[in-house]
């Protein structure tokens, strides 16, 4: 199973793997002189001794060595060491190689334990401003910066932006070596890049590779990532990726790996984003983003099939914040946003980034498709709440009461249903403001069961139509079956969050 890792340093286990690899390599080299005449196991390939190889002049753009570039830029790269304290929860499972003395027992308050972390960063000015990742210093009470000459300086946090995972530090001093962001010319896919950082605590480590791709979506809202194959590992977080001119094209932040070490798939925050955010932080400005009060989901193949559409571009509105900008403008759950201010969007994350880039008070024009028909809506952007405020759960959807209906719906879709009422709301713990049909049982062999539908969840909409009675749902299903549609898209509320779920009608 692949995992996405923020690159904070953890040294446990790393040394063993490297030592083993070195032993195997040494053993292979001892017998190489005796392999000249062997072809078995090589599919007839000829083994060539390294001393028989004639150096070949590299093609244009491929340097014989990166040494001159690394000599020039590496003094601007720093190692970052952090200290902080975390509470060890009771019942926390023990991890081999780690010891948590004084772990809380039942009934006891969780004790605090000191934790240490490490990452990378780089100077962007001679007077001591340093760029790094927010996750490198997020939990730190003390931050020390180590320079290439082994000098250590205490750093203070100037500003942080968790949504782009960027932070700016400051150390006292002057005439520090620094590097610049490349803001005019982007390397092409396939161009050389160099990463310098502090992987596994080995400061000043340099690796080389190429730009693998642009515009990678790894689940973050406000960044289209640059993908590189230059090896980066835990501890490279916050370090720079350079082009062949020694200019910073990205801030290394994450890897995808099946093992915890580099698998050649790394991600960096592009220079233009990093420059914009860090300059605002240095100037003391807050990072403010536009907000229209919607929850969005991707238009998957299944969602498109259930809606009878073929175009997967755009964003599906799964929820609308009650009283928010979109609610006031008439945006509804089930709307599909195709463009923002006249420019087409390809995905739900692109919608989030477009809206986040507008200023508070700006008018945002949304071209949406509602029940197959185009609708144009104008929303006045507000200030995006903090993550803490959003995580508390802003209420969404329309605040309407459910009319009386038959106690149980027919067994359509393998579901037994009741309308949301004061009684069912209390019985199933349904949040205020959520209306529709509460699911009371699910047939074990149904498509709904296979897709994780459970009693207590609420069907808010079916085929983008509000459903508050069993008759509403039955009517929608009958219309779709007559039209030959293979599935119906249900908007299901689970623990206050609306999720689109296509269910088969076959």
Descriptors:
506 residues; alpha+beta; seven-stranded antiparallel sheet; six-stranded antiparallel β-barrel; 11 helices; 18% helix
Range of helix content: 10-25%
How can the largest sheet be summarized? 7 strands, antiparallel
Q: What would you call the structural class?
A: alpha+beta
| Cα separation of the termini | 33 Å
Strand content: 25-35%
Low-confidence stretches: 7-44, 47-53, 92-100, 394-410
Mean pLDDT: 80
How many strand units?
A: 28
Rg computed from alpha carbons, rounded to a whole number of angstroms: 28 Å
Overall spatial form: elongated
Q: Please tally the helical runs, counting DSSP H or I stretches of 4 or more residues.
A: 11
**What order do the strands of the largest sheet run in, or round the barrel if closed?**
6-5-2-3-4-8-7
What is shown here, in short?
This protein has helices spanning 14-30, 67-73, 134-137, 271-282, 301-307, 325-329, 348-356, 387-391, 422-428, 447-450, 470-482; strands at residues 3-6, 77-87, 112-123, 129-133, 142-146, 152-154, 156-161, 166-170, 192-197, 205-216, 225-228, 240-242, 248-257, 266-270, 290-291, 294-297, 315-320, 336-340, 343-344, 363-370, 373-380, 382-383, 415-419, 437-442, 458-462, 465-466, 487-494, 497-504. With 506 residues, it is an alpha+beta fold. A hairpin with a 2-residue loop joins strand 27 (487-494) and strand 28.
């Amino acid at each position: 199973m692949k995992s996405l890792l923020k690159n904070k340093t953890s040294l446990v286990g790393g040394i063993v793997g490297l030592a083993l690899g070195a032993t195997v390599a040494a053993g292979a080299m001892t017998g190489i002189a005796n392999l000249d005449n062997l072809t078995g196991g090589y599919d007839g390939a000829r083994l060539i001794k390294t001393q028989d190889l004639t150096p070949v002049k590299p093609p244009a753009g491929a340097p014989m060595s990166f040494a001159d570039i690394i000599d020039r830029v590496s003094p601007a790269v720093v190692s970052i060491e952090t200290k902080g304290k975390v509470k060890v929860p009771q019942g926390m499972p023990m991890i081999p190689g780690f010891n948590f003395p004084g772990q809380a027992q039942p009934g006891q308050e969780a004790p605090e334990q000191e934790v240490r972390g490490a990452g990378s960063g780089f100077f962007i000015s001679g007077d001591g401003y340093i760029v790094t990742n927010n996750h490198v210093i997020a939990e730190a009470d003390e931050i020390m910066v180590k320079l290439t000459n082994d000098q250590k300086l205490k750093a203070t946090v100037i500003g942080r932006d968790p949504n782009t995972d960027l932070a700016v530090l400051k150390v006292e001093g002057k005439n520090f070596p620094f590097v610049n962001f490349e803001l005019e010319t982007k390397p092409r896919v396939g161009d050389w890049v160099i990463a310098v950082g502090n992987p596994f605590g080995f400061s000043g480590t340099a690796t080389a590779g190429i730009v693998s791709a642009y515009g990678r979506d790894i689940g973050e809202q406000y960044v289209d990532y640059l993908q590189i194959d230059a090896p980066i590992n835990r501890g490279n977080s916050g370090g720079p990726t350079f082009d062949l001119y020694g200019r910073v094209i990205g801030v290394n932040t994450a890897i995808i790996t099946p093992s915890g070490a580099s698998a050649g798939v790394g991600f960096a925050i592009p220079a233009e984003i990093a420059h914009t955010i860090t300059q605002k932080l240095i100037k003391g400005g807050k990072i403010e983003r536009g907000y229209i009060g919607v929850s969005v989901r991707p238009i998957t193949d299944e969602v498109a099939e259930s809606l009878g559409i073929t175009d997967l571009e755009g964003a599906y509105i799964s929820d609308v914040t009650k009283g928010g900008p979109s609610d006031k403008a008439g945006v509804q759950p089930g709307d599909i946003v195709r463009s923002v201010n006249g420019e087409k969007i390809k995905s739900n994350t692109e919608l989030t980034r477009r809206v986040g880039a507008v200023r508070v008070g700006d008018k945002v024009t949304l071209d949406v498709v509602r029940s197959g028909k185009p609708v144009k809506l104008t929303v006045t952007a507000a200030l995006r709440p903090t993550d803490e405020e959003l995580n508390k759960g802003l209420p969404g959807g329309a605040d309407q009461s459910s009319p009386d209906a038959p106690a149980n719906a027919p067994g359509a879709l393998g579901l037994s249903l009741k309308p949301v009422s004061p009684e069912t709301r209390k019985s199933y713990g349904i949040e205020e403001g959520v209306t529709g049909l509460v699911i009371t049982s699910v047939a074990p062999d149904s498509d709904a069961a296979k897709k994780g539908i459970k009693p207590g969840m609420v069907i808010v909409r079916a085929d983008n139509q509000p459903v508050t009675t069993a008759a509403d749902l039955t009517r929608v299903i009958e219309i779709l079956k007559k039209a030959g549609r293979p599935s119906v898209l249900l908007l299901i509320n689970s623990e206050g969050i609306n999720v689109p779920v296509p269910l088969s009608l076959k």
